[in-house]
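User: Here's a chain of 203 residues. Predict its fold as tokens.
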Amino acid sequence: MYEYRHLTPEQRAELIRERLAKGYPAHRPPHLVRDRLFYLLTATCYEHKCQMKEESRRQQVLQRLFEAFVNKGMEIPAWVVLPNHYHILVQITDFDALNKIFRSVHGAISRQWNLEEKATGRLVWYGYSDRAIRSERHYYTTLNYIHYNPVKHGWAKSPYDWGESSVHWYLQYYGREWLRSLWTEYPVRNYGSGWDDYLGLGS
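Assistant: Prediction complete.
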């Protein structure tokens, strides 16, 4: 995502021209598909800095996300919050409300954390990306991807070792065997590879 900073001025200009020609924002993730029911929404901390190392911060982010989406009549069937990014699977009823929701959640959190750390004006969030869920297989593969994310990024040895994840809710209500069968039927494999290119330039 942050390869942009290592490009020459000429390479940067060419990359921006290509993005604008496609109708993408110059430096932010494009939001291309707006008519699906479910989306995987991903938000990252600016420059992938670990602004959420503390469990209390990850819990705070979760609480604010649930409050914001539920207030808009939207459901979050799956989630994971890591030290430098999070993924949520959301049933969208109003795509146009997403920008306002993320501005509200991220803005309030940024202000609080920056005050706590005397870092007024610091950028905390890069933004968010959305990926439309295309099928039942895509839905359940996404669910597995979300739950496996702490292991993928080296924060846990098992999905069950990470607290800020919906895997514990599914374990409680559906059981371990159900989760195992889901993993077998809908393996993650290379799911998520190449997403840095999709997310934007990271300026």
